[in-house]
Amino acid sequence: MPYGPHTAPDRERMLTALGLSSVDELFLDIPEALRASPLRLPDPEPELELATRLRGLAARNRVDLVSFLGAGVYRHYTPAAVDQMLLRGEWYTAYTPYQPEVSQGTLQSIYEYESLIAELVGLEIVSASHYDGAAATAEAALMTCRATRRERVLVSHAVHPHYRETMRTYFGSGLQLDEIPLVAEGPYAGTTDLDALERLLGDPERPVAGVLAAQPNFYGLLESMSAIGALTHAAGALFVAVVEPVSLAVLEPPGVYGADIASGEGQPLGIAPQYGGPYLGILACTEPLVRQIPGRLVGMTTDVRGQRAFVMTMRAREQDIRRDKAASNICTNQALLALAASIYLATIGPHGLRDVAANGAARASELEAALAALGIERLHAAPYLNEFAIRVPDARAVHRRLLDRGILGGLVLADVEPTDPSVADALLVCATEITTSADIARFATALADVLGGRSPVTIEAAVAIDGSGVSTAGRMAGR
Amino acid sequence: MPYGPHTAPDRERMLTALGLSSVDELFLDIPEALRASPLRLPDPEPELELATRLRGLAARNRVDLVSFLGAGVYRHYTPAAVDQMLLRGEWYTAYTPYQPEVSQGTLQSIYEYESLIAELVGLEIVSASHYDGAAATAEAALMTCRATRRERVLVSHAVHPHYRETMRTYFGSGLQLDEIPLVAEGPYAGTTDLDALERLLGDPERPVAGVLAAQPNFYGLLESMSAIGALTHAAGALFVAVVEPVSLAVLEPPGVYGADIASGEGQPLGIAPQYGGPYLGILACTEPLVRQIPGRLVGMTTDVRGQRAFVMTMRAREQDIRRDKAASNICTNQALLALAASIYLATIGPHGLRDVAANGAARASELEAALAALGIERLHAAPYLNEFAIRVPDARAVHRRLLDRGILGGLVLADVEPTDPSVADALLVCATEITTSADIARFATALADVLGGRSPVTIEAAVAIDGSGVSTAGRMAGR
Amino acid sequence: MSVTGPRLQPTLFERSRPGRGGGKIPHPPKDALDRIPPAHRRSEPPALPELNEPEVVRHYVNLSHLNFAVDTGFYPLGSCTMKFNPKLNEWAARLRGFAELHPMVPDQVAQGTLQLLHDLESALAEISGMRAVTLQPAAGAQGELTGILMIRAYHRSRGDFERMDVLVPDSSHGTNPATASMAGFRTITIPSAADGGVDIAAFTSALGPTTAAVMITNPSTLGLFETRIGELLDAVREAGALAYMDGANLNAILGRFKPGEAGFDVMHFNVHKTFSTPHGGGGPGAGPVGVGERLVPFLPAPRVLRDEDGSYRLERTGERPTSIGRLRSFVGNTGVLVRAYAYILAHGATGLREVTDDAVLAANYLKHRLRDAFDIPYDRACKHEFVASASTIKKDTGVRTLDIAKRLIDFGYHPPTIYFPLIVDEGMLIEPTETESLEMLDAFADTLIAIADEARTDPEMVRSAPHTSPVGRLDEAMAARQPNLRWRPMRGAEMPCPD
Amino acid sequence: MSVTGPRLQPTLFERSRPGRGGGKIPHPPKDALDRIPPAHRRSEPPALPELNEPEVVRHYVNLSHLNFAVDTGFYPLGSCTMKFNPKLNEWAARLRGFAELHPMVPDQVAQGTLQLLHDLESALAEISGMRAVTLQPAAGAQGELTGILMIRAYHRSRGDFERMDVLVPDSSHGTNPATASMAGFRTITIPSAADGGVDIAAFTSALGPTTAAVMITNPSTLGLFETRIGELLDAVREAGALAYMDGANLNAILGRFKPGEAGFDVMHFNVHKTFSTPHGGGGPGAGPVGVGERLVPFLPAPRVLRDEDGSYRLERTGERPTSIGRLRSFVGNTGVLVRAYAYILAHGATGLREVTDDAVLAANYLKHRLRDAFDIPYDRACKHEFVASASTIKKDTGVRTLDIAKRLIDFGYHPPTIYFPLIVDEGMLIEPTETESLEMLDAFADTLIAIADEARTDPEMVRSAPHTSPVGRLDEAMAARQPNLRWRPMRGAEMPCPD
Ligand SMILES: Cc1ncc(COP(=O)(O)O)c(C=O)c1O
Ligand SMILES: Cc1ncc(COP(=O)(O)O)c(C=O)c1O
Fold first, then answer.
1. Residue C28 at interface with chain B, using a CB cutoff of 8 Å
2. Is the same domain home to B336 and B357?
């Protein structure tokens, strides 16, 4: 056993103390007929071989592409300090902080996480933490039902498709979920259809518990969140804003535009893409909803010595106390990722976070201009922050041919919305602070090439802009 | 300033307290005529840009070659735990452990380092630590002069050329250094010439303080260390063994074959090649020489509370106390690398270290056989551990052409010994536990190709042996 | 400044000074945000703390010193399997090829990770004796939800809409009933028999045409193997219900019992227990679910598939309409799964079985060492953990299990899980795991025995423990009564900031 | 178990158990060593400890908790420049391209590192005003040796074999005279003047035709800029000697004073002070040396060269016969130099000057805060550090600087450097560096002042400090009298192993 301490004499000593001759005797309680067939797995692999194997597998993934893919997961620069703090063994393999006397490090860090996210979203109560943005959003939807004792939730079609699918799964228990369609044409195309929303809210037979909309939405567009909120509240429902945390450095926060609940994906806060997780489900709400919010809450208190200290609190909402009456079944969460997000925010600071968001916006403008010069237009007209859809004939084939040229040309929207004709010929592209002008030039050049046009900038010129010879792909860590 | 805490108001407050209006006033003691011209350096670089630049530079180094290069620096597998323990901030930017009450971590780790190396070399006293193998060997030579009050040292020509050059530099002060030639022909070719040694020792006018020989020597060959030691001691001189620490898992240690002093390069003990440093100079000696050994010594003692504790000791040898009478000028050393070596040894254990050495030996045999199948013979006949020289016509050109094929075919001996005709057509090649059969097959194939012969193994077959698709190059860390 | 003992730390907010920090991100062009309509813009920047890197580092290094962790000491927290967290796994998960891979790339870009996931599914299937495995659930509880939703879908697919009950033993973990509720089922609690197993009579009489599933934790949360498991499973099958196994305690049966072979229809793994991956202060984890033949069609989407040509791919949107859908975005907590894969390969077949053997041996040894000083409510061979009780001690001295747990802190140990499962009076659930040495087990036993003695000789010392931790017992009532759940500038006396 | 305070640890050897560990390296073929003649084989394996990974991790994590470090608190250790160690630099040095590069590869394989080294040489030349720089020396002391050997070679190259004296001020660091001896020179010590500068009369009268070099530390080890440096250098030049500047205190003069411009012939950098790289418990460091025109031919080999075509290469063996040769193997402590390069680029011209300004401002501020409570022997504007003295306190109370230093430990601070330079009675050399906040400077000053008070009110409390550290004051006499410099199995009572 590669990590076990027991030597043969150790085992012998324990068996002797127990009066046994073999460890098999400790398994006699397994009915003979039900004992396991032999494990068909390979022999133990020494670390040298295993490390080689793992490095080989990692090398089979292509992470050196010039990428314009976002779609809910964003590639940002993580300062080196973040992972070095996170790698400290004192954080690891420490389960729930059941014993606050010896868990103040984790407990204070969770309290700080709650406080940091509260500042970002402008809401009072933050739970720490949920599995990811999709699961947190599904929990938010369930919260609205519990709080209003209604059973129907409306979700904008422009909420991330994975989140909508997840909600559908979670709603399998009998609650109802309806989608709010999007405006089809004109300056608001691609955003939530307010008229449709009003109609959906108006059905007296089927009162609505909550309304969910995303800011920016899945297509990168900015929604009229206050208008959605006003309609929602007028119908006695709760308003859930699905947010992207980095954007909140510059965008109006949910607390200001009247959201009752905010949910979202915390991955952009210093967490690597990792092909899908572990990420960080953000969930926050107003004070009156505090008894409805699922997940862990840590509060400040004092100890018997009169010192300030931190402790898990309001646990009566949780499954280990309430069992089948609990607010959710969540137990293990993503605490280490909440810590990562906190370290990231502490390291980068408010100005740094603003710069991250603003650089993304600036690069996205640059990208839009470079594509426009090729005659490639946006699919929508509404304002966006750092991500937008473009109309590209035969998008899937173009995407594939870009890949051959080392470029990840965003997301083929038809892959996630195969039945939606409005996105049949579209790519969703994004820029962040790690996108370089050279990356944009390479994208434009390759796209021109693929589309049979001419390149507006040569690759040589492009590389000169950056100088380092390292593309976006090399700009994520510090990790 | 990227790491500074001072805000403008902070600076203002300090200046006000000092009654100053500008920080410039604190530099009025620099004579006006001698004040610096402006610094012509670029603007501060944000971490994102700097990380990109550094990654770009690192990427310009080619570390994915299949390598057979050793020559004093060896590529081993370092378990992942080693670097993760080493990266802990508590070890870093802590200078000399002047205050033992708050430095027990470092002090105990140094004591353990001394103990671990003492076990390996079989000598009592280990100093912690020296700059590298070359500097430690030069210090060893100087020690023999101090201890014997003689001024002449003999060094085998088969000690690493860099070490011999370093000794020559350190001996600039007036001491004499003579080289012991090697046996030119026959079964002992490439090892220290014992007859020549005896003659050199025999000059009554020029008594010898110390004799240095390496085991394995620079050509990978095993020397008759006890015979060298016996001749040395007969002449009243001290015997210095220059050793490679991993080999000591399987080779007779200096303490057993009668060396008075051992020196060597600690890099193979879990330290990355890093293009030359920081490494770890090992220096050890017998008990009677303890007052002559330069560098730090940590001993065990007790504190006022009766607890066991560790402290720097016998400091009267060191420059900060003895000034111009000190054993050496060494002050800053390589303590963090001594720690790395200790963690490596603790992690890998005695059996692991033996396996490292034995795997290297096995792979080297395999390499010898594969080359012999191509008709390429060793340059020498004496036994070796895991490194040996081969005779290759036009070695430099062959080496270059191997490089074009992604293979680092060892060291061109003529590059380091340009005036020695005996190594004019030779490559020094090495294998370690990270060398794979696939690497060897690729080497043989490429060499056959370069030499215009036929390949004994196809590349396809070779890769299949390893299976991972990762060559030696991917097998070093864990780091 | 932990060398003179860990010190309480000010919050990030209290450390903040306006104007500090910077140097990480290039400044954007001045007009970067001009495009964004003012109505969408934030008027005030978020009041995040401003710190420089040295202060951030000191903050988190010093905070970390306030934690007990497996890397610093023995952590016998029952039911949590606090085994050692191999350092190779942390290295592996950080390899650029794994870490920087975006989850929505085309399959051909992600062949390394897809192959790893596919191989891991096979390994988990082999370990559990199940037919297929999904890696999607983020934790055990989400795995339970996945399993129960599949069971629901199964019954519905057969036109059976009557089955609304889920049976769970009273010793079960809280996630079991909570999951049943979340999926819209009614929970029926089954009492335990005197020997700690499920009460078979109560069980069979609760089974019926409205039973959708039974959820059995095996070994149970008491650390006991369910010896009547064959009978139980027969009864379930007969009733037309499905059998869910809560596999959180898998560490006790690797290579010894395969739930799929025994007849369970579905189970979840707690990867972050059995396969060591870190659950830092509460997570992350991963809760893969294995299913028998009947539930395969209902597995969450997307599955990881291996094509004829040996390449790997994810199921496409809508490819398998019988699926219950997705439980989360993307394919799973891949970073956690990389660690689990490394763990399984490092051990291999023999190593995994040794894990179980050593974990069970250590638990039985420790139980044996404690039998004179404490009550052992279920005194038969345990599996990887066991319950001890301070019932007698409390009767004799008034010292409770809580006090004993706190007192352990003074001696450098993390307390066991206490008052769980709820059915044991003054219980403590002790799980040593297989990565603790015999020296450590003995030292821990000696200490617990000494504390039991101390409870008799100096009960106040135990009742007022811990004495050496950075904070003493907390005022939890105040925390709940006047919740302070986020930082606000506060007046000195009210809640003073440690310097 | 440091959460209840750091605990002393058994040694690795005491933790060892035969048969523990393994799993890292594949087993070699049985016949792997058959080729090695028995005479060369080790008969007994080395008695290294046998541990498993979890124990190794606990050992080093817990040991690390016994250290004071910049990452945990304020470390005003004068002359050591204990500034913050940027985490980016640790990341950078570990990039595979840097870390795994063998030092004897052909130049074309190492272009990235060679370019970095070349650019770093240029930056150091610009900072120092020197003509050329070698990166080879491993530390300051080796830099000194390099410089002095070049000076020697210079005089000899001119046929001047008479110059055997090296002049050093009495406040100089011990490495200066030790280096002179190592290079075969005679050290002549020059007293300090009352203002802390070199006594100019003593200096000029010692200068003469046998003077090879003077070694001046500027700012001096008292933290004072040598105001008469112009005169001194003129005198040196006149005497035909060369001027060596010990640049260990460069942090005080970045962008303010360039030794090369002022007329120094040679200087070393303490990269591990000025440019932040970690000197963990004693190293590693790097001691590059800058030289003026006259010494360029003698620089150690190999230098890093840039060829016409823009590629980089190392000098070939024997390419420049005037070189003093090599001081070590390979090209330098490259891993340290990568960190220094990152540090310099992160700061740029403005940032480096700010480093100095802030370091000097902080030192003067702290001196000002302490002036009433302590003696300030040289009370003029200091540079990056200053000497305070407990001379008066000792006279009044018997409490010594050593006691005050130890008492600081109880309050969570690392003591300053004490009794250095040797010429100050009861001196403590305090260097705050530029990375400590004003809050920290004030808190430290308050504490030192409080200790000065305490020395008068409760001297025994100070004299018996530290009280809260894991060990108290040590028996250093015993350590020297009965040296125990390596572990041997020992009897319990003799030197007990902490549990
Ligand atoms: C028996 C049992 N079942 C289920 C769970 C829930 O698993 P998770 O915490 O990963 O959601 C746990 C762990 O906490 C457990 O111990
Ligand atoms: C003034 C002075 N000179 C020289 C040195 C020697 O430098 P190093 O310790 O790097 O050898 C030091 C540092 O210790 C120093 O402070």
1. no
2. no
Give the number of domains in chain A. 2
Residues A317 and A427 in one domain: no
Does the CB of C17 have a partner CB in chain B at under 8 Å?
Answer: yes
Å from CA of B175 to ligand 1 middle: 73
∠ CA(D342), CA(D348), CA(D352), 5° rounding? 95
Mutate to test the pocket of ligand 2, among D173, D216, D249, D387 (most ligand atoms within 8 A of CB): D173
Average pLDDT of chain C?
Answer: 95
A200 and A112 in a single domain? The answer is: yes
Tell me the mean pLDDT in the region D326-350.
97
The number of angstroms, rounded, from the C-alpha of B282 to the middle of its chain's C-alpha atoms is 8
The per-residue DSSP string of C256-313 comes to: TB-HHHHT-SEEEE-HHHHT----TTS------EEE-GGGGGG--SPPEEE-TTS-EE
Is the Cβ atom of D147 under 6 angstroms away from ligand 2? no
Average pLDDT over residues B112-126: 98
Whether ligand 2 lies within 6 angstroms of the CB of B332 is answered as yes
| A289, A319, A344 - which closes a domain | A344
| Ligand 2 probe mutation, D135, D145, D245, D270, most atoms within 8 A of CB | D270
- Which chains border A (3 or more CB–CB pairs < 8 Å)? B, C, D
Domain for residue A178, yes or no? yes
Q: Is A331 in the pocket of ligand 1 (CB under 6 A)?
A: yes
Of the candidates D214, D285, D200, D219, which has an alpha carbon nearest to the alpha carbon of residue D243?
D214
pTM, two decimals, is: 0.97
Tell me the helices (H) and strands (E) count for chain B, helix number first.
15, 14
Exposure letters D394-427 (e unless 16+ CB within 10 A, then b): beebebbbbbbbbbbbbbbbbbbbbebbebbebb
Cα–Cα distance for residue pair D158/B46, rounded to 1 Å: 49
CA distance A240 to A222: 15
Is C4 in contact with D435 (Cβ distance < 8 A)?
A: no
Report pLDDT digits (tens) over D179-200.
999 999 999 999 999 999 999 9
Task: Please name the residue whose Cα sits nearest to atom 15 of ligand 1.
Answer: C248
From ligand 2's centre to the CA of D144, what distance in Å?
9
Taking only the tens place, the pLDDT of each residue in D231-249 is 999 999 999 999 999 999 9
Task: Give, as one character, the DSSP assignment of residue B238.
Answer: E
Is the ipTM higher than 0.90? The answer is yes
Is A393 part of any domain? Answer: yes
CB contact under 8 A, D253 and B23: no
Q: What is the dihedral of CA B247, D22, B431, D34, to 10 degrees?
A: 60
Atom of ligand 1 nearest to the CA of C246: 3
Where residue B378 sits, what CATH number does that domain have? 3.90.1150.10
Do strands C211-217 and C186-190 pair parallel, antiparallel, or not at all (unpaired)? unpaired
pLDDT band (50, 70, 90) for residue A452 = confident
C470 lies within 8 A of chain D by CB? yes
Which of C16, C24, C63, C64 to substitute to test the interface with B, most B CBs within 10 Å? Answer: C24
| A126 shares its domain with A205 | yes
Q: Is C384 in the pocket of ligand 1 (CB under 6 A)?
A: no
The whole domain housing A465 covers: 349-478
Q: Are residues A273 and A224 in the same domain?
A: yes
Report which secondary-structure segment, H or E, holds C213. strand C211-217
- In this predicted structure, the answer to whether residue B248 has a pLDDT above a threshold of 50 is yes
| Closest ligand 2 atom to Cα of D141 | 11
Rounded distance, CA D137 to CA D267, Å?
Answer: 12
- Give the pLDDT band of residue C495 (cuts 50, 70, 90): low
Q: Are D116 and D333 in contact (CB under 8 A)?
A: no
Structure tokens of A114? 């709650």
Contact D25 A81 (CB under 8 A): no
